[in-house]
Amino acid sequence: MAPIERARTASLLVLCPALIVLALALVGAQTAPAWLEPYREPASRILAAATSNTDAWQRLAELTDTFGNRLSGSPQLEAAIRWAAAEMKADGFDNVHTEPAMVPHWVRGDERADIVQPIPQSLAMLGLGNSVGTPPGGVQAETLVVKSFDDLQQHKDEAAGRIVVFNVPFTNYGETVVYRSDGPSQAARAGAVAMLLRSVGPPGLRTPHTGALRYGDDAPKIPAAAISTEDADQLQRMQDRGTRVTVRLVMGAQMLPDVESANVVADLTGRERPEEVVVIGGHSDSWDVGRGAMDDGGGCIVTWEALRVLKRLNLRPRRTIRLVLFVNEENGTRGGMAYRDRHTAELANHVLMLESDSGVFRPLGFGFSGSDAARAIVNQVATLLRPIGADRVGQGGGGTDIGPAVQAGKLPAMALEVDGTRYFLIHHTPADTVDKLDPADMARCVAAIAVMTYVVADMPERLPAGGDGK
Ligand SMILES: [Zn+2]
Fold this sequence. Notes:
By secondary structure, the protein is of the alpha/beta class.
């Protein structure tokens, strides 16, 4: 609309308030289908109940203060799983149980990295998950700083016997994380004896970020660690000035035999079609630094609280809502695979799977993957979340934990979407603690998940099946 026309229309509307009311009513009638109307009242009750307390934040604080971080194979994780199952029973949910999954058991051990030449200085580092350790005395070699895989290829002749440092500034996770996962084997193929990685995240108070690496079968397994962005920049500057830098890396990391762990499962059994299931959840494990508050204690707690709010309000939907705390997202996805394998026969009855694993900051809405027909319905449901500003439905409803079942069953899938500005600042770091999260934002996450899940589980017609498997 041209500015003058817009001004004219605006003045017309100002002159005729009745016209505005009529216009709004017409727009409302056009966009809101009749089946949605009965959900306005329960949705507003859920929003009010979920945002009237700080239960989610308090529970996350209790979880992370009590058990600390929860790497797969650790006693802390097993204790947290037992606690969660007991608490869910106390919450009065149905069918509370654990479902076993074998998980990898990687341990970090003692570790450090130091510049030894030209003058001793320590580096802020964290070994990468799944890395092999060094010999007890460590690996000592001159560094070769490169800015990309291409850059490494161009300096291949200089890499043999060196510690290759990938100094790749963070753009987005997808683009940058390949240096963490594939960098060690790329460096090893060029003859490197160890690899250091600029942490995958924006610069932030000299904090290294861990995360999993993936060794290729065709390369020697060399030890690999992340260093802070500041330290990577320092090594870069020294190399650019022509200074030869020698680093010693000592890592006690080792991979022990798999151990048995478990997913935790609890249902709010549907009143009419209990066999049809909407799954919500997050992952119980975390990295072994910080407290795993944002990743993904928060996702576990907000989905859990969503179920508690519905129970408290006596809102038992037509279909079952199932809460799953998946185990071992960080270094194996064994929980997600175990859920798929155990429930293969019932996947056709899975209406939707929703994961919260992108942090529990201010919610914006959801990512959704599924058919166009299902998306149109989800868009309608999301309008009920306008009061808390969480009514956006974007693309990309995947999640690592729900992925195996979603792909096997070609299921509609959803991910809670939040304001992710600060996510990668603390992701996989010692700084992932509950104080970084806001109680009111977490309450809004609970509200968004509870409303969306309740309506999808209760609508007269089932959400159209079919997903793109992503
Ligand atoms: Zn996660």
